[in-house]
């Protein structure tokens, strides 16, 4: 009885897969879909708009429900600018500083696990590149904004040449997201020659002090700023940084 059931189940699965394969017979590339996948979720997964993803599918594919779908061509990414994620940074927190949307970030980094900071730490995040001749990422035209340096800044640099936040991060050994937090309004694609930027600042930490109290007492909380160590030896508060 059990053997007959398993044979019937195997035959049913085989028939379903054959039907799915036949449905996508005209597709160059296919992928398995989850039962709950919709056009929107699949489009986001492959860095496309819902209409673009729908245009890839034959008329007989229904979503949600189809076990197999057509996907865009798996062309290799020709990356022209990348960045090594630092501890505590996420893919999208860095990508946003370069005006890279989550869908475009996904297209440039299809195999990068961006689900958590620990899984992406020390991995290369592509910020600009091309796929099959289509360019993704790079500077965009937008009004120039005055950068606001944090009031807790300890050291600044004056740039000797035009560069990006990736260059500044490499030259100062500081994470990009930290540099951006100290320089509000920074344009990571367009750091101008002669521009002054903060590269080190006081980071406030909260320390709690435990005391013996009565039922009506309380434990005080002290806020104590602790300046972090400089990433490299700085002899003056201002220096010139150029491209490597």
Report on the structure:
The protein is an alpha+beta fold and 244 residues long. The chain has three domains: 57 residues, Membrane-bound Lytic Murein Transglycosylase D, Chain A, CATH 3.10.350; 61 residues, Membrane-bound Lytic Murein Transglycosylase D, Chain A (Roll), CATH 3.10.350; 54 residues, Roll (Membrane-bound Lytic Murein Transglycosylase D, Chain A), CATH 3.10.350. The protein has eight helices and twelve strands. The strands form five sheets. Strands 3-4-5 form a three-stranded antiparallel beta sheet, with helices on one face. Strands 9-7-12 form a three-stranded mixed beta sheet. The protein has a two-stranded antiparallel ribbon with strand order 1-2. α2 crosses α3. The longest helix is centred in the N-terminal third of the chain and has 22 residues. It is elongated, with a radius of gyration of 26 Å. The chain starts with a helix and ends with a strand. 24% of the residues are buried. InterPro entries: LysM (IPR018392), LysM1-like (IPR052210), LysM_dom_sf (IPR036779). Keywords: Chitin-binding, Signal, Virulence. GO terms for molecular function: chitin binding.
Report the portion of residues in β strands: 15-25%
Uncertain stretches: 9-22, 205-240
What is the CATH topology classification name of the largest domain?
Membrane-bound Lytic Murein Transglycosylase D, Chain A
Q: How much is the radius of gyration in Å?
A: 26 Å
What is the 3D shape? Answer: elongated
Query: Into which percent range does the helicity of residues fall?
Result: 25-40%
GO molecular function, one term: chitin binding
Domain LysM: 155-199
Signal peptide: 1-15
InterPro entries: LysM, LysM1-like, LysM_dom_sf
